[in-house]
Amino acid sequence: MPASTAYSAQRCIDALDTAASPGNSPLNTVMTIANTLESGREAWVIRGQSRSRRVGNWPTWFARNNGEKPLLYLHSATSSAQLCALSDQIAQRGILCNDIENQPSPWPKGAHPSLPLWLATHPRCTPYDPASGDEARAIVLAGLRTLYVDGQPGFYYLALHDQDASTTLDSQDRADAHKGMYPIQRGQVADVRLLGAGRALEEVMLAARLLAQDWNITAQVWSCPSYTRLAREAAAAERWNRLHPLAPTRSCHLRECLAGNTAPVIAVTGYPQAIVDQLRAHVDTRFIALGAGSVQATAPSRYWVVVSALRALAEQGRIDALDVTKAMARYPLG
């Protein structure tokens, strides 16, 4: 990585650190970040909807400049083919931010089913689904540092929605959000653990409230901005341990977060269930993955999260199985 690129990235980080955080939706937060970076002239800020900065004009526009700068690309790709073409245009470098979730679509989260699978399997892409503006801000800052200061290869992808969220992150939360997951409340021991990403996190938090109010069951809630990053790190650690039986065992963020507790884990995404299924092999307790199409066409509602949690507890013998039937009759599951 050229020293000039690292210098530009650090200037971007410094500018964002001193700028006021809007603290609202991921989309509005990234738009504010884009405005800050654009005014500083230390980064390329490409707006896919701008006539002068269309994807097709990108190679010519960038070729007029000799050195690489941090890249923030705002776009609305709906399919894996579009995103593949876009990633090729930018030489698979930069931070791609997609607001497709906010547009009408017959597909979950506005994306064709091929898109999240492409994100999860592309080795140079690190995909994120932030639930709040603070998460999006933390991920962009970490991406600037990782890609352009540390010089690691690849590109980041952020799915952006425009629903405000009041989550406030401390320094540990920000670091853990970049790693893939962090607890909404630290130090809490609970009967069940609920994981949520993006807009689905709100339903997960409401499900935790229902479990407490209606069933006297405590739930620990985790925000998981990147199920894919968690799964990749866990698989890499597992492979290392398999190939180096005499070396010290390597752990991973997912196992460290879920260690020391046998409470079942319910993981929820607005994407198809396959995105959450990536974690299954690396969770050492009862694990239920829920996504679009798992129990209903859209992302699972809070009621399905409650029923799934009760079912997992019943299978462990911690509650009466009759409670699952009662919950299915009590809540609107359609």
Automatic annotation (TrEMBL):
KW Metal-binding (keyword) present: no
InterPro entries, per the entry: PDH/Transketolase, Transketo_C/PFOR_II, Transketolase-like_C_2
Pfam families noted in UniProt: Transketolase_C_1 (PF22613)
Listed Gene3D superfamilies: 3.40.50.920, 3.40.50.970
Keywords: Pyruvate
Domain Transketolase-like C-terminal: 180-280
Name of the featured protein: Pyruvate dehydrogenase
Organism whose genome encodes this protein: Pseudomonas khavaziana
Phylogenetic classification of the source organism: Bacteria, Pseudomonadati, Pseudomonadota, Gammaproteobacteria, Pseudomonadales
